[in-house]
Write a structure and sequence with these properties.
5-stranded antiparallel β-sheet; D-amino Acid Aminotransferase, Chain A, domain 1; Rossmann fold; 8 helices; alpha+beta; 29% strand
Length: 317
């Protein structure tokens, strides 16, 4: 099987934490041919989508560089590959949007994980509104007065974050009595010119938030991310610590509720973020956490992902 992963520059991949490294390493161990390209190396010629790709020579999960690739690029149609994995990290900007539009022309010619239409529809912050009964009180607005009124309704504090943020960046706990609140709201909304998400502050975050990886609509693995001292952000990229966990009945209910929508939108591999029994985000662009889970549970979850690719990729091209 030939696999193409659309990624950030190979030099940015982290050997001991990057999920893409784990997936591609497992694929190579099975004898599959693995190639990569960056998002700007996609192209479309006379309706045929393709990319300038490089073959991966070696992968390391211990020391940098995580990935060694051939120095020369070759132009290949996407139909040359049995599976194409979109693993470019956020933000979801105009370049990312246009890349998903190019990938539309690969539909039916290869297995796309995740589906470009689903990627466009599933803003990682906004997608949760498909499941209003699973949420804590949450609004999206750019207006100061609406934000302050919401904060008052939530007892005088709230969480504010940008719609295009990732890895815990620019997430603030805002309090009504804080003299910095006005400045924070000005910066976050760019003086009421940018939408932000505001959510009820959930004190359960002190005990951590749960990252649940979903594959084919089913739970693949989970870990509890504990924020470091003096921080509300539990993302591993922001200094959080991952610990073993199990899924509660409420969390299994959340997984079951989102499953049909994920499958409908072609979102094969996603990460759900849950705090105190509330769905807070659905990560679809390049969900991570595999290597941390592997170390905690002494498993190789990436094997199940490659199993999934082998099962869903076209048998012949």
């Amino acid at each position: 099987m030939r696999i193409l992963a659309i990624i950030d520059p190979p030099s940015t991949l982290k050997p001991q934490s990057d999920t893409t490294v784990a997936i591609l390493d497992e694929a190579m161990l099975r004898g599959h041919e693995v190639y990569i390209c960056e998002i700007t190396e996609l192209w479309l010629k006379l309706g045929e989508p393709g990319a300038d790709v490089r073959r991966v020579q070696a992968l390391s999960r211990t020391v940098a560089p995580a990935m060694t690739v051939e120095p020369t690029r070759e132009a290949q149609p996407l139909s040359h590959f049995h599976a194409v994995l979109m693993r470019k990290d956020p933000p979801f900007d105009s370049v990312y949007l246009q890349a998903t539009q190019l990938l539309e022309y690969a539909r039916g010619r290869t297995f796309l994980m995740n589906d470009p239409r689903g990627l466009r529809e599933a803003n990682e912050k906004l997608y949760i509104f498909n499941f209003p009964d699973l949420l804590a009180p949450t609004i999206v607005t750019r207006r100061y007065d609406v934000l302050r009124a919401f904060m008052a309704e939530q007892g005088g504090q709230m969480i504010v974050k940008p719609l295009d943020g990732f890895g815990g960046s620019s997430v603030f706990q805002v309090r009504a009595e804080d003299t910095n609140t006005t400045s924070i709201l000005e910066i976050m909304t760019q003086s009421e010119h940018r939408w932000v998400m505001a959510q009820r502050f959930l004190p359960e975050i002190a005990q951590g938030d749960k990252r649940i990886l979903m594959l084919g609509g089913e739970p693949l693995g989970a870990l509890l991310r504990i924020p470091r001292q003096y921080d509300i952000r539990s993302n591993l990229a922001s200094g959080g610590t991952g610990v073993k966990t199990s899924l509660t009945p409420r969390e299994l209910e959340i997984c079951a509720r989102v499953r049909p929508k994920l499958l409908q939108d072609g979102l094969h591999f996603v990460g759900l973020d849950v705090i105190g029994g509330h769905l807070t985000e659905v990560n679809v662009t390049s969900p991570t956490g595999i290597q941390a889970m592997d170390r905690l549970y002494e498993t190789r979850l990436e094997a199940k992902i490659v199993d999934y690719l082998e099962k869903n990729a076209p048998r012949s091209l």
